[in-house]
User: What shape does this take?
Amino acid sequence: MADQKTRRDENFPVGSLLIPLDLRADVHAYYKYARIADDIADSPDTDATEKITRLDALGAALRGNNDNLALNDEEQEAVKNLRHCMVKRSLDPSLATDLLEAFRQDATNTPCRTWADLINYCQFSACPVGRFLLSLHDEQDGRAESDALCSALQILNHIQDASEDWIALKRVYMPSDWMNADATSCNDLNAPTVSSGLRLTFDRLLENTDKLLETASPLPRLIKRRGLAIEATLCIALARRLSRRLKRQDPIARKVSLSATDWVYAGSAGFLRLIKP
Assistant: This one.
């Protein structure tokens, strides 16, 4: 439902015009908080201990702890804006602070050993985004479907950025047991083109991601607010298009991205959702 790209350039609708005007400031406050946490976790000039301290301070401040000595002015402003939203809407702070667990894992480069590890990471890095949007719109249903969609979007982003994540940050978001079984390693992420073993691992990830998208497919029908339902429709359609592109193209040779045609196709799906009674 919004890209769980709390990271990097967005592939999917985030805080779009489909969100009611009175809720957009709340969505933007959420993303600002998430991006600040992301910047802390990715900072090349900060050691892991300091990163954890600052992430913990972000969490404590959002829960109302006024000891903000570890936060700079921008961080304090972001916390203030999001806390105002949370209190005003009677939302649980965990909808945002759960994100911090994923950023803590990023800060320490916690290894991903299995598919279960990857899904657990997504439960913190991506799923809170969808849960926040559902709660903000006062939607009662669709949490499992939203979790599946957000996890799928996150994994697609990981495949897109696999080489960049390794080269820049020494992070790998692929199950190491699959990589071992496919006779590939992190060294293959430095290569100019995808190796046969790494292609196998990517294909495993994409196969499982397609299953997540199948689980997510009922989500638009479960959402009562039309704008959010259309946004979910767009995200599912775009995710399916991106998955197909990643199966056909080499994400190591160059970044595989959505095209204008993909957006037109997804927009058509969203339009059909709009006119559907």
